[in-house]
């Protein structure tokens, strides 16, 4: 999917602004120093925007409730019953846990979902007959995000979308993050994970690739250099490259002051670029 920002939204500006995508389980495991770094960035005038996921927590809550989890091509099959749990988990427990950790570090954060103020507008994905209430982003109200930033808060966004009739949709967090970044005019995005970047074997030793194109990633998957659990992480990062977003930087959230260092241009992790 390609998201094209509306003309009026292209004027939001990008100075000191960045979007960070992180899974809920990854954020929960991050040290306090990560959130202290985030606070210091906010105090210095940098404006972070966070879009988070929470797949493992959703699956755990569904299991507790005796509701089956099924996936088709990586997308969770979402009925209204499943969507209740998705919204409860993403917009509730995970979103507020992130807000609390930011505020405990001295930062200021405001949690919301794509439903609030029709922030993330969506319609059914093409194969909705297979996956149910999974949404594709059709628009993002950038003025809500920039308004929260102007008030001095870090927006923490759960990827639940809504259409004009009020129907909710479960939206892939990486797709939602890429759409938010594109609509607010952020050309790059930081994906915080539990790995140091995309790695390949050179002379029997694993090294982190500092930069790689989307085409090169596909070749590395094809030849087995990228394998196992790294494949979904990399494909998720590629999902973020849409609209105005031209690069995604994969970093290890446990690396000391990782956000500050990446924003200063230090070569950490892997930069994924279109070409």
Describe the structure.
This protein is an alpha/beta fold and 275 residues long. The protein has 10 helices and 16 strands. The chain has helices spanning 24-29, 32-43, 55-64, 80-104, 128-131, 142-150, 173-184, 214-222, 230-239, 258-263, and strands spanning 17-22, 47-52, 71-72, 75-76, 109-113, 120-124, 135-140, 154-158, 160-162, 168-170, 188-193, 199-202, 205-208, 211-213, 247-252, 270-273. The strands form 5 sheets. It has an 8-stranded mixed β-sheet, with helices on both faces. Helix 3 (55-64) crosses helix 4 (80-104). The longest helix is centred in the middle third of the chain and has 25 residues, at 80-104. It starts with 16 loop residues before the first strand and ends with a strand. 47% of the residues are buried. Residues 1-14 have low confidence and may be disordered.
């Amino acid at each position: 999917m390609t998201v094209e920002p509306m003309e009026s939204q292209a004027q939001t500006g990008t100075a000191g602004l960045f979007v960070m995508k992180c899974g809920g389980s990854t954020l929960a495991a991050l040290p306090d120093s990560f959130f202290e770094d985030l606070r210091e960035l906010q105090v210095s005038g940098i404006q972070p925007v966070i879009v988070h996921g929470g797949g493992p927590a959703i699956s755990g809550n569904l299991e507790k409730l005796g509701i089956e989890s099924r996936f088709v091509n990586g997308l969770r099959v979402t009925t209204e019953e499943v969507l209740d749990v998705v919204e409860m988990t993403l917009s509730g427990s995970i979103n507020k846990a992130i807000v609390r950790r930011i505020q405990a570090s001295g930062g200021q954060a405001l949690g919301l979902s794509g439903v609030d103020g029709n922030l993330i507008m969506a319609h059914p994905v093409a194969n909705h007959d297979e996956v149910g209430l999974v949404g594709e982003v059709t628009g993002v109200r950038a003025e809500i995000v920039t308004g929260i930033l102007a008030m001095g808060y870090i927006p923490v966004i759960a990827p639940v979308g809504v259409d004009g009739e009020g129907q909710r949709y479960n939206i892939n967090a990486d797709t939602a993050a890429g759409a938010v970044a594109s609509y607010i005019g952020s050309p790059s995005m930081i994906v915080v994970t539990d790995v140091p970047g995309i790695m390949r074997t050179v002379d029997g030793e694993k090294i982190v690739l500092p930069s790689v194109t989307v085409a090169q990633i596909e070749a590395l998957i094809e030849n087995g250099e990228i394998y196992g659990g790294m494949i979904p992480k990399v494909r998720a990062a590629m999902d973020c490259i849409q609209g105005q977003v031209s690069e995604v930087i994969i970093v290890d959230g446990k690396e000391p002051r990782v956000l500050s260092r990446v924003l200063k241009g230090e070569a950490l992790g892997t930069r994924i670029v279109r070409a």
